[in-house]
Structures are given as C-alpha cells and as structure tokens.
Write a structure and sequence with these properties.
With 616 residues, the chain is of the alpha+beta class. It has 26 helices and twelve strands. The strands form four sheets. A six-stranded mixed β-sheet has the order 10-9-6-7-8-11, sandwiched between helices. A two-stranded antiparallel ribbon has the order 1-4.
C-alpha cells in the first residue's frame, strides 16, 4: 500500500524516499518561474500532500520531518543551492494558520502528530475495522486510549508508538456529551464548555462528592436547579441548564470532539489545538486575506505586516550593508514608512495615482493606521477601480522601483509610473470582475400565512442577544382563523443560538401534542435548524439528544410538517423568544397572548406585508 513493512529499527533511511519525492516536486525551474504567491499555492496543494499518506499510520523520524520542512521553506523563499535567498519570516511563524499571522503551511512534525491522533480517535470510538480489533486486543485490554498514553509498553510496535504519540493530543478536544449522565463524573470529567467543574465549586468538596455522577443532579423533569445553585456560581448553572438531558428517554453518554461544530474529529482542529489557547491570538493584519487583490500583492502585504521587507534598515541589521540610509535622501534611515511615504519620490507617486478624499486624512497618521485605513476602505478612484487595489499596487510598484534603484545600477523609474500602476490594476480587476460579482436580488413583499382549515400552525424562534450568550426560545400555536391556541417563552440560560432554535422547535411540538393538535405545520426561520431536523444526524453531534427528540416528536402518530420561513414571516415567534430573556429559568406557557404581543399578532392576522430581498 506504499508504506514500508518494518522488520528492523526505524531510522532516517527508512523513509528517505518521502524526502526524495518532495525534492523532485520542488525542482529549481518551478522555483524560478513562480512568484511567492504561486510557490505558496504549490506547496499547499502538491508538496505538502506527499507525506500525508505515510504520516497517518507512522511517526516519521524528526530528522525526516526537519528535511521536509527545510525543502518547503527553501522553496517558499526561492532559495536554491546556486542562489541563496533570505528567509524573511521565521518558519515557526510561517507554519501557523493565516489568522494567527502565518501562511497556513503545516509544520511536518506537528501535522504528523495530528494525523496520528485521528487513528487514536478511531480506536476510542470503537472502529469496527480488523486493524482496530487487532490493536485493541493486543494493547488496550487494561487501558482506554487516553490512559494508554501514560502506560509503559514493552516490545510494542513502531505503529503503536506512533498512535500513542498522536493520542497525546486527544485530551485537548475531548468532551463528554451528557446522555443519562451515569458514566460521567460531575466534578472531575470535562463535560461542559466551561471546563472541569471542580475548578468552579463554591463549597468544599469531599472525597465522596467528587465521585458524584451527572445523573445525581438530574430529576425526572430535567436539572435539579436548586442543587446546582447550592454548589456552583450562577453563570455556570445557566450553562448547565441549557443542556437537553433528563427530559425524554435517557441516552448513552458519549465522548465527542468539542473543537468542531459537528462533534466529529478533524485533523485541522487537532493541529490548531497544539498551539494552545494562549497562543491563538488573531493577527491584526488578518483581514488582508479577504481583500480582493492579486495574490502576489497579498503575500507582499503579509511581509509588510510583519515588518520584514528588506529595507536598508533591515539589510543593515542582517549584516548585508553598512549603510541603513535611503539612497535618495542622505542621512535618513530607509524604513518602510520612509520608502512608502516620507521619501522625496513618494509624494509624486501618490499624487500621480490620485488619493480619494475619503482617505486623504490617513496620510497624516502613523504607518500602521495609514495602511489599515487604505486597505480596508471601500471607496474607488476616478477611474472606477477600488482604491485598496490601487493602493496595494502602488506599494508594490514603489518597492520594485526601490529595488531597481539599489540593485540595478541606479535604474530610474519611468516619468509617468501611474500609467503602469493603473494598467496592472485594471487588467486584474477586469479579469476577476465577473467571478466576484454578487448575484442580482429583488425585493418581494411577504407576510405570515394562515394554515389551511382544520390545521394548526406552530411558529418558533430562538434568541441570543448579548455577548454573554444568554439564550431564550419562544413560539405560539394558531388555528386557521389565526386565533391564539397557546404560546410559550423559555429562559434557557447560556448557550448557542442553535440550541435556542432547537429548544423552540422541541417545546413547540411538545405543547402542540399535549394540547391535542394532530395536524400541524411547524415554521422556523433557522434554515440550519430545519436541516438538522430533516436530515440524518451523526451520533457525535453535540446537540444529538435534542435533535433526536425533535425527530421523535415529529414521528408521533400525527400529521406534522416542518418548514423554513423568512424571518419577516415569523415576527410573533420572535417576540415570544425575546420575552423569554426577562423570565426566570425554564419554560413559561401562555394560555392567552401577552399584551406586548398584540401589535405583531394583529399584523399577522391581517396579512401586513414586509419587504424582503431575495435572489432574482
């Protein structure tokens, strides 16, 4: 299958063929004919994929990983045996994700561990494959996968040592999803997003209390809120209260991967988890990756953002020259700010391209603010081209002109450089204009629609309206005349908007069934919630219990349809959901409509239309 059969000690020669494959792919002619942006794409799509297959089942020697990383970084910076190039940004930064200031390339050793973690996760999730049965039968008779990492195995295979190496990552993303709660230690296990609850206890915990399981805090109707408040702070209780447990049939407690929305393991999130929460700080120039600019300009801006372009100040610091001054302005250091703004040539360049009045004030600000304002702006030039495109092109042209002046025997720029800048920008803009244009939209009028005669309509909604993630749900049931049958609002504590939407659906269905309605249409303005309910769901999903209970409610002995509607058609349910924020924790049923809902109910009843922009 392409992976060496190991019968002896693993060394760097065992996987030397991987290095040779990477080296062949990164040939010198590709290095010379591609820009840095092109080399970056090539590394991500071709070279980085070569060792992936082997790294899924084997821990590569560190020396092999280092050689692959060396080949990758040399190719990125255009470095060859015959032509040395400066590596402007260190590899530790380059190999971090883009939102952290890197280029998204993968450190081979770290990627190897993340890929092996996937194999360990499959073992933990009881993969039915023969390979898993063999490994579990040989190595996991007395341990679980996480416990095996701290155990000492003698005479184990290289494959098993590699899986243990990867499994060290698993605690970074493992979390229990509560079913019955009987298998989960309430205080010691990680089952809540906030972390292990032992760290939040407001009372001394005895040895016996530490052994309590989650089901000790459950009643037949849900959480024992009084008991929770007696030993935990209110914000933690609110987080716990939003979890859907102890209401319907008890289900199995399950370990899920908490770093993805679906609860399934992903190598990407495992890789990110190795940076640690303290290291994951968004880079302030992260927005450049979303700009509609030529890729070579974006990578150039990335280098500027790190302050690493080779100005004379940088060259002097690296020992490439003894003179850090500008070749045009004697006795003034050539910094980035000087090249792009303060040099005697710079004003002629900027005046030539025509600075829009919306950003003219930025030229008096500091360099960082100047860059950010001009790149983020949405204004255009008198030629109809986006100003941030002209701005980035001018920076590029200015830098290239400076390099020609320093390294090409004082070559001077043309008399009208703006012609070249506008031609370059116009060509790129016209080539990409069609692909980036938004589809046309039209305005339509919509309103709530009465259900057919003999049927009932349930409208539900969820709400999350502050940074502390307080969530609520609400809804109402009406007949074909638009008459109020019953309504509800619920304060759900703290959670996600998807939890609120699904809680609203579940509560609406439950109340309609208890009310004796047997022919219903449920309308929800959350497309994602409707899809989760209508399509098959993996048992690893964090909201699996709530989704399954919604499905089971729909599958009862009644006629029940679940459909998506626009938000403008769901105003009454939205009002009920907002009402839940001001109520005590739990469900509140309204036999008659609250006075605050009278206006939206009248609007629904008479079919008052509201505008909505939709795709034409």
């Amino acid at each position: 299958m392409g992976v060496p059969l190991l019968h002896s000690r693993v060394n760097k020669e065992t996987y030397g063929n991987i290095v040779e494959k990477v080296q062949r792919r990164l040939s010198a002619w590709k290095n010379n004919t591609l820009s840095m942006a092109g080399r970056l794409v090539y590394l991500q799509s071709v070279a980085s994929a070569i060792p992936i297959y082997s790294m899924q089942s084997t821990r590569l020697p560190v020396s092999i990983c280092d050689k692959i990383d060396k080949l990758n970084r040399n190719f990125l910076w255009g470095h060859t045996e015959d032509n040395s190039k400066v590596h402007l940004v260190k590899w530790e930064t380059v190999s971090t994700p883009k939102f952290m200031g890197g280029l998204g390339l993968k450190d081979t050793h770290v990627m190897n561990q993340a890929l092996l973690a996937k194999t360990g996760w499959k073992l933990m999730q009881r993969d039915p494959g023969l390979w898993a049965q063999v490994l579990k039968g040989k190595y996991l008779k007395h341990y679980d996968m996480v416990g095996a990492c701290s155990a000492k195995f003698t005479n184990c295979s290289h494959t098993w040592r590699g899986i243990l190496f990867g499994a060290q990552i698993l605690p970074n993303g493992m979390r229990w999803r509560v079913g019955s709660g009987s298998q989960i230690h309430f205080w010691k296990d990680n089952w809540l997003e906030s972390g292990v609850l032992e760290n939040f206890a407001t009372i001394p915990l005895s040895a016996d209390m530490l052994e309590w399981s989650v089901d000790d805090f459950l009643t037949d109707d849900g959480w024992n809120v009084e008991l929770l408040y007696s030993c935990l702070p209110p914000d933690i209780v609110e987080h716990i209260f939003s979890l859907h447990v102890g209401i319907a049939n008890h289900r199995e407690d399950k370990v899920i991967w908490s770093l993805t929305n679906s609860g399934t393991f992903s190598v990407k999130t495992a890789y990110l988890s190795l940076f640690g929460d303290d290291d994951i700080i968004p880079w302030k120039w992260n927005f450049i990756w979303k700009l509609k600019l030529p890729p070579k300009l974006v990578t150039f801006l990335w280098t500027i953002g790190h302050g690493k372009i080779l100005t004379n100040v940088q060259r002097a610091r690296r020992g490439f020259t003894n003179n850090p001054c500008c070749p045009i302005c004697p006795n003034i250091e050539e910094s980035m700010d000087h090249i792009f703004r303060s040099c005697r040539q710079s004003p002629f360049l900027w005046n030539g391209v025509g600075i829009p009045p919306e950003v003219a004030h930025s030229f008096a600000l500091d360099f960082q603010s100047w860059m950010a304002i001009n790149l983020r702006t949405h204004c255009s030039t008198i030629h109809g081209l986006p100003w941030n495109l002209i701005f980035a092109s001018t920076l590029w042209y200015c830098w290239k002109g400076r390099n020609n002046l320093v390294f090409n025997d004082g070559q001077q720029p043309p008399v009208s450089p703006q012609k070249f800048i506008f031609q370059f920008a116009r060509d790129w803009y016209n080539a990409n204009k069609c692909s980036s244009s938004k589809p046309p939209r039209q305005i339509i009028s919509i309103h709530w629609i009465h259900p057919p005669i003999g049927r009932y309509k349930i409208n539900t909604d969820g709400s999350c309206n502050d940074p502390f993630r307080h969530i609520s749900a609400g809804g109402l049931i009406r007949n074909s005349e638009g008459d109020w049958i019953k309504g509800f609002a619920a304060n759900l504590g703290r959670g996600t908007i998807m939890e609120a939407e699904l809680w609203g659906v579940f509560m609406g269905l439950s109340i309609a069934w208890d009310e004796g309605c047997r022919d219903v249409i449920l309308e929800c303005d959350s497309w994602d919630a409707v899809i989760l309910i209508q399509k098959p769901i993996l048992d690893s999903h964090p909201l699996y219990n709530l989704i399954i209970d919604c499905k089971e409610a729909i599958g009862k002995n009644w006629r029940c349809e679940v459909t998506h509607i626009y938000r403008e058609m769901n105003a009454s349910a939205d009002h009920m959901a907002d009402l839940g924020h001001g109520l005590s924790l739990g469900l509140h049923v309204f036999v008659s409509p609250p006075t605050t809902a009278s206006n939206v109910l009248v609007s629904d009843s008479i079919g008052r239309a509201l505008p909505r922009a939709v795709l034409a």
